[in-house]
Amino acid sequence: MNRRTQSTLTPIGLDVGTRYIKAVQAHRTGDAWRVSAAAAMPRATPGVPIGYEEIAVLMDLLDRQGFIGNDAVLAVPNDFLITSILDLPVRSESAPIDQIARMEMARLYKREPDSFQMACWALPQAARGSDTTGVMATACPHDQAEKLLDAIEPAGLNVVALETASCTLARVCQPLWADNDGLSGVLDLGWHAAHAVIMHQGNVIYERVIPEAGIELLHQQITKRTGLDEAVVGRLLSHHGVDAGDSPLEKGNGQALSWTSATGSYAETVTQELNRSLSYAAHRYPNAATQGVALTGGGAMKPWLVQEVEKAAGVTLHQASLNVLAACDTHLSEPGGSTLFTKALGLAQHTQG
């Protein structure tokens, strides 16, 4: 029985996805992380904003799965955020970068300067010198954040922090890299969209949300082209379908050819989008070697996709599952092997440094 006190544990990292809500709670063991609880709950209505009833059901599940307390950290939905890379004066006492960045974001997005919560950080100096400071700024309007909190907190969750998904993914995957001097990336393959995040010297320097690389589009294309049931498509995609021993497809027939065409097209799209993101970073920092890219999200659990994209992109890919990034208690062997919980672990780490 888990007898740890709440004070030794992180808040609950809560990743609200299109089809599942993922939750992780962890604690430190020396310099390492250990996951003590993990759970996933299917969304009642996929894709809709989360509400009171759904959170109430989730709270009951978390209690039964061994989570302790009701403090939680959530990721701000990407469509709530406004993000820009700004060229600002070199940081000095007479040039307060944070204030200047806020005023510039207000000007760019035609908002009042005090109408949003903002985080910003200086980017590493690019290869070509400049008399300005590159700053990445990301902001969430107060009205959007309040709408999210008003839907969640009445059901019993105490939201102690909201964080951007890009910072969450960068932090949780940082142990995969030997050092921070090179370029590294995270590709979060979600249902509606993929999310590419590129880092250099420990900083997020670039991010893109890519609807064209959402797993949903792959499922739709295969279902449409082959006529197979959606549940069958989902099961076979874990094995690449045609090569699975229990596949209803016969190699060389029309269904199998359609399957191969659809999966090949999707892998090509993912590769192109990943290369586009890495190319931007390599152009800005040509002397920084690319160390690799971490794959997270439900789409990252497809071995065939990892192999095809790694070969085509020419970059090392790491499936950033829970048990790669942290130790897991013995009862968590199933979620421990999944990349579905990676972002939730990163959110749990938020207040722990």
What does this structure look like?
- With 353 residues, the protein is of the alpha/beta class.
- The chain contains eleven helices and 14 strands.
- The protein has a six-stranded mixed sheet. Strands 11-10-9-12-13 form a five-stranded mixed sheet, with helices on both faces.
- A hairpin with a 3-residue loop joins strand 1 and strand 2.
- The N terminus is likely disordered.
Which characteristics define this entry?
single chain; 353 residues; alpha/beta; Dna Ligase, domain 1; Nucleotidyltransferase, domain 5; 3 domains; 6-stranded mixed beta sheet; 5-stranded mixed beta sheet; 35% helix; globular; disordered N terminus
Explain the layout of strands and helices.
Layout: E1 12-16, E2 20-29, E3 32-42, H1 52-64, E4 71-76, E5 82-89, H2 97-109, E6 116-122, E7 132-141, H3 142-152, E8 158-164, H4 165-173, E9 183-189, E10 194-200, E11 203-210, H5 215-226, H6 230-237, H7 254-284, E12 290-296, H8 303-313, E13 317-319, H9 322-325, E14 327-328, H10 333-336, H11 342-348
Parallel strand pairs: 1-4, 3-14, 4-8, 9-12, 12-13
Antiparallel strand pairs: 1-2, 2-3, 5-7, 6-7, 9-10, 10-11
